[in-house]
Amino acid sequence: MIETPQQYTNRILSFSDGRDAWTVLRSSPGRARELVRGLTPTQISQPSAPGRWSILQIVTHLADCEVVAAWRLRAILAEDGVTLQPFDQNAWASTFRYEKADLSASLDLFDILRRANLRLLESVDPALYGNAGMHQERGRETVEHLIRLYAGHDLNHLTQIERLASGSPHA
């Protein structure tokens, strides 16, 4: 089943319900490292089913999403109302060969970019959190909304990694 943009947003936000988004954002790179520590190359590279992503692909996706977040946050903070272009995560996974990525490098990139993005958010006037971008699929998204959305996105994928690492078939 293909989700509508609104269904996607609602599902991702549901992961962070009742959680402090800032705490989630600060802890996610370390949590990802903990979850993969001690796993074998097979565990890291094996998807749960054909067409599903492996742990390696999920971690690499998290790193690339942080690249996207870095641009989106800066664009919105500097220009209220800026247009936000969507990206096709499966095209990125294929084009950038997520299945051949270096796990350690992806974890490092996720961590470094996340810390930089959090420093940026902490350095600007909090009134700018009301600035919004116009996402071409999902509509108006404020910085405050994106903070919650990114936290939910992290939790969604960290749960997938945890399930894959435990051998659960429902990752």
Q: Structural class, judged by helices and strands?
A: mainly alpha
Q: CATH superfamily membership, which one?
A: dinb family like domain
Could you name the CATH class? Mainly Alpha
Looking at the overall shape, the CATH architecture is Up-down Bundle
Mean residue pLDDT: 96
SSE pattern: HHHHEHHEEH
Distance between the termini: 16 Å
Could you please describe the fold and organization of this structure?
- Helix 1 crosses helix 7, helix 2 packs parallel to helix 7 and helix 4 (55-78) packs parallel to helix 6 (103-123).
- A three-stranded mixed sheet has the order 1-2-3.
- It is mostly helical and 171 residues long.
- A hairpin with a 3-residue loop joins strand 2 and strand 3.
- It has seven helices and three strands, in the order ααααβααββα.
- The model has no long low-confidence stretch (mean pLDDT 96).
- It has one domain (5-166): Four Helix Bundle (Hemerythrin (Met), subunit A) (Up-down Bundle).
- The longest helix is centred in the middle third of the chain and has 24 residues, at 55-78.
